[in-house]
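Help needed: design a sequence for this.
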């Protein structure tokens, strides 16, 4: 992502916080029409990647319920806000990785994941099978690839 794009948008969560709306609560439905937006959790420890993911998903009409840099934070957000899908990086801050987080989300909440990672070698993919991912996005990828896979995953 070009550096000028990093400063050209304010993430949806920050926009909502500035308006006095909780960052992890649902967005104003009037701006989205009558239908409810799919709730998505982003699990990514790279700040700029997380901002871009949030931007792409909210611009496409999805409700990003939270962004977590650790497995523990992701599970806490999922407990409170019940997402329908998680976009998960494999390497995370903290002691646990994204595969462990995705597996626990599936086991405890039935939440399926899409892995978004630069680490998709055969051993990592084999390890990730326990989480039954709905797809793998290899970084770097185009926003259209993300949105297409999210759309397919939400229909699964």
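Sure. Designed sequence:
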């Amino acid at each position: 992502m070009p550096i000028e794009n990093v400063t050209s948008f304010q993430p949806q969560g920050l926009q909502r916080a500035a308006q006095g709306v909780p960052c992890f609560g649902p967005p104003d439905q009037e701006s989205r029409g009558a239908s409810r937006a799919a709730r998505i959790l982003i699990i990514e420890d790279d700040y700029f990647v997380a901002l871009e993911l949030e931007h792409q998903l909210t611009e496409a009409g999805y409700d990003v319920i939270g962004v977590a840099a650790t497995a523990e934070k992701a599970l806490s957000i999922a407990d409170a806000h019940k997402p329908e899908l998680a976009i998960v990086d494999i390497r995370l801050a903290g002691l646990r990785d994204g595969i462990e987080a995705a597996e626990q989300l599936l086991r405890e909440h039935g939440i399926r994941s899409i892995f978004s990672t630069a680490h998709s070698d055969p051993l990592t993919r084999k390890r990730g099978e326990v989480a039954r991912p709905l797809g793998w996005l290899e970084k770097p990828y185009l926003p259209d690839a993300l949105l297409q896979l999210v759309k397919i995953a939400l229909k699964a």
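DSSP finds seven helices and five strands in the chain.
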